[in-house]
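Problem: given the chain below (193 residues), write out its structure.
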Amino acid sequence: MSVPASGRAVAISRFLARHLRHRPAAIGLVLDPAGWADVDALLAAAARHGTPFTRAELDAVVAADAKGRYAFDAAGRRVRANQGHSVPVELDLPVVAPPPVLFHGTVERFLPAILRDGLLPMGRHAVHLSPDRETAERVGARRGRPVVLAPVVLAVDAAGAAAAGHAFGVSANGVWLVAAVPPRFLARLPDQR
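Solution.
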């Protein structure tokens, strides 16, 4: 199986993110309660809405995605986004004990609200946390576009939050998910730049 040309792969990945995470109904796609979409239905919907791609291209995008955003079910007949949904889904992730510290990347302009209200899912299904500082910095750097802003990295006292009753899960691609993180479990890390 060959990997699609990078521009084409990016376009397909963006289409998947938009319609498997946020807007399935916009193309007539139905997700089951766990976020799974029938592959054949996805391919047909994509073709009907001006973004046709083949099963081989879908397989290649899912396999090559460096962040592991998408997954097939065991039979390979359904596909879903591993996290990041703004539509209601139940990912059925088991509650697991998190590592002592997790990380969250953001930018300065969001910091006052975060330190006041904590980390909230906003339009998403859950708050996303990174297992390492470097990943959180990359996430924060993306949030700073189009103006280049230095990312802000918060350390999350995940062990303390879990002890206080906050349930953590981890997606298939290693992103930690939690409903919210109160401000008392957050600490800004010094900039490393």
